[in-house]
Amino acid sequence: MVGAVAAAAERADLGAKTVNHYILIGLGILIAVLTVVAALGVLPSLRIVPDDTHFDFTRFRRISFPISAALSIVAITLFFTHGLNLGIDFKGGTLLEVKARSGTADIAAMRTKLDALGLGEIQLQQFGGPDNVLIRVAEQPGGDAAQQAALQKLRGALGDSVDIQRTEVLGPRVAGELLAYGMLGLMLAIVGILIYLWFRFEWQFALGAMIANVHDIVLTIGFMSISQVDFDLTSIAALLTILGYSLNDTVVIYDRIREMLRRYKKMPMPQLLNESINSTLSRSIITHFTVTLALLALLLFGGHAIHSFTAVMMFGVVLVGTYTSIFIAAPILIYLGVGEHREDAPDSATPAKKSKA
Amino acid sequence: MLYFTRWKALGIILTALIVCLCAVPNFFPEAQVKTWPAWAQRRLVLGLDLQGGSYLLLEVDSSYVKKERLDQIRDDVRRTLRDAKIGFTGGVTVRNDAVEVRITKEADAQAALAKLRELSQPLGGLMGSSGQRDLEVADAGGGVIRLSIPQAAMLDRMRKTIEQSIQIVERRVNELGTVEPVIQRQGNDRILVQVPGLQDPTRLKELLGKTAKMEFRMVDTSVPPDQAQAGRLPPESELLMSASPPPTPYVVKKQVLVAGGDLTDAQASFDQRTGEPVVSFKFNTSGARKFSQATTENVGLPFAIVLDNKVISAPVIREPITGGQGQISGNFTVQSANDLAILLRAGALPAPLTVVEERTVGPGLGQDSIEKGELAAYVGSILVIVFMLVTYRLFGVFANIAVAINVAMIFGLLSLLNATLTLPGIAGIVLTVGIAVDSNVLIYERIREELRGGRNAISAIDAGFKRALATILDSNITTFIAAAVLFYIGTGPVRGFAVTLGIGIITTVFTAFTLTRLIVAWWVRWRRPQSVPI
């Protein structure tokens, strides 16, 4: 999937340079016209989700839970069999992005030249345009100094035929630390958000959100394993963003559930959850659509440097995040015993506070 | 919810306006901004990934620092015991991160302990109040005295080493004539060096990779080098190799006549007779005196100029050098003479530095990233704006005004904080545009719902705001926590993303709570609507 998107971006890239300005000016005019028309109230009202939607989402938990469980198992299996394509940030080694001074880059010639250096396995890959090549050299034995020596050799061997656009050299210890920090950060974020939700809601909500959270991360890691995008610091950034926005969505639904719990003391839980999901559905869809628009722009025009970053976010925020809040985070509250003891609650107090499991 | 006092409305508008205005300096060329008053000079800093440049993470060798200190303690112990005429057997040894000495006579042990305790200084000099000392002297039993470095003392030493190293690194980097390099301490034992615009850091790394410990020492002429190599080395001398190829051995006395610390200046120049590149230097007063005395006493004998334990040259002293000036020749090229002069001027590093992380970005790639980031930002924003107009019509116009001010405020706050803008940072702003309208969507959907519930226009708008704002706060705080964690763990470009994401959340919440409400409130007061066109 990433490959297809990258190819699309390539095409967009070539055309972009010349057409850019016309597109932008055209869109600007469109906005101006639309603004005037909208302000005058001539446009028809658009309802993305019909007002009287009453879809039975919670019934799907008998399907969605097993599906999610199965997908999670697949993702975890992938993680252990395929593994992640650790980027230089976490693996150490040397990376060079070079651009041929004239014409296209001759990868085969470059390969023979670099293989002769005896630096172990060297990966060469076309990156961006036909004149750009990404060179990866695995970490050299012999600590930090050895990595520096390898870079020196590479620079020497490449000579004047190419411009070196970018280099990254990471020694083994720094790479190890970055990986440890990244993982620690992920845990910290989950725990921090959990604590916040625990304060704001009940522990069942926090637990439900946490399960949804881990589910998101597991599936996204599965995606990274399948697509073999580089897993580096920006991937951690993408994971944390996915976490934040998936929760954003979950919190909006939870907020509504809490409100409904206070208002309708006798409504059965599945129905109450359904009402909550349905009444926030329009917002969920519109918001995800706008985020998708933003991410799409980044994916198509943002350049190859942030490609995997946006691809991962697209998958996590748009596909997994939405599904999770509707089909996992909300229905799971039934199993966590939310709203079971509402009838006993005094009218004035918040009923949810009384629910103990 | 829809009522604002005049002062509150004014306050909101002023706040938004001032924050937006903070972004203004970014639209003027840097040279022009430099002439403005200092408070107006705050602007966005482009990250190295957008600007091009080098990022080096250097590590100070802590084991070297420890070994140096232990060697120093060993010498002190030896000298102290000799001065006090206390006999010891087996010499003074460095073992297991400590210095050990066995006192020959049991009876002397207490006296030795007392003498050696004098070596221990309170930590932090005379002002030290922690009660901790830089050396722990203990009786290990059986006449053995053990001197070790406490943890706090080692940390203190590392801290000083880093501070000193940063100064030296700063001087060396500045000698390269680069623009606005950033040099800061990172963690316990690392130094971060960022040099914008420097595409190939090879020379910088060469300059930083040398400790540049310079010494003037006498050559030991009592033993020819080949015999010394065979093992007949006098105890007060050592065998050093030449700096330039082919490696030639020299027998050099351990005693240092004058050290590099006594140099006040060094310049690359050309020898007047041979025309080859040399480095001329000047000593300070005490250095000049020491050098003058040593050269007077040793006329006719060779002395060695030693840099990082390698002999640069070993000229014969033809006459006493009393002027405190001299020159070093030693097969230099113009470049290497220049580099040596820089190193001597900047001073010696207290410990060797290793490059543990290096990232460079060429200026072309940076410019390319800026262009792509800008394009993505425009396209993303336009798509979102059009979508909002089509979906919410008049209220879409309100939302778009709020989002535009929101983005302007993001740039304002980033400038105010002198934050670094990176490519992922631009992605963060684009993402914020997508997310920022979410607050409007939440409010509008809630208003629609309240209208369906049978409320009249004004009451529905009021209730919509009231109910949606709590949700907006809750849902944004979770994302903010993620951004904060990311800021804490990330470096470079990733940190840039965390910054824009976090600031984007703050401005989003601000606009939702104030500006959007204010705009709608004005509209309600102006039109007194019977129905809501939403």
TrEMBL record, chain A:
The chain crosses the membrane at residues 22-43, 63-84, 178-199, 233-257, 285-306, 312-336. GO terms for molecular function: protein-transporting ATPase activity. It comes from the Bacteria. SUPFAM superfamilies: Multidrug efflux transporter AcrB transmembrane domain (SSF82866). Forms a complex with SecD. Part of the essential Sec protein translocation apparatus which comprises SecA, SecYEG and auxiliary proteins SecDF-YajC and YidC. Belongs to the SecD/SecF family. SecF subfamily. This is Protein-export membrane protein SecF.
From TrEMBL, chain B:
The keyword Protein transport applies. The chain crosses the membrane at residues 375-392, 397-417, 423-447, 468-490, 496-524. Residues 355-524 form the Protein export membrane protein SecD/SecF C-terminal domain. Signal peptide: none annotated. Keywords: Cell inner membrane, Cell membrane, Membrane, Protein transport, Translocation, Transmembrane, Transmembrane helix, Transport. InterPro entries: Acrflvin-R, SecD, SecD/SecF_arch_bac, SecD/SecF_CS, SecD_1st, SecD_SecF_C, SecD_SecF_C_bact, SecDF_P1_head. GO terms for cellular component: plasma membrane. GO terms for biological process: intracellular protein transmembrane transport; protein targeting; protein transport by the Sec complex. It holds the Pfam family SecD_1st. It is a multi-pass membrane protein. It is found in: Cell membrane. One of its GO terms (molecular function) is protein-transporting ATPase activity. Residues 239-351 form the SecDF P1 head subdomain domain. Forms a complex with SecF. Part of the essential Sec protein translocation apparatus which comprises SecA, SecYEG and auxiliary proteins SecDF-YajC and YidC. Part of the Sec protein translocase complex. Interacts with the SecYEG preprotein conducting channel. SecDF uses the proton motive force (PMF) to complete protein translocation after the ATP-dependent function of SecA. This is Protein translocase subunit SecD. It comes from Bradyrhizobium vignae.
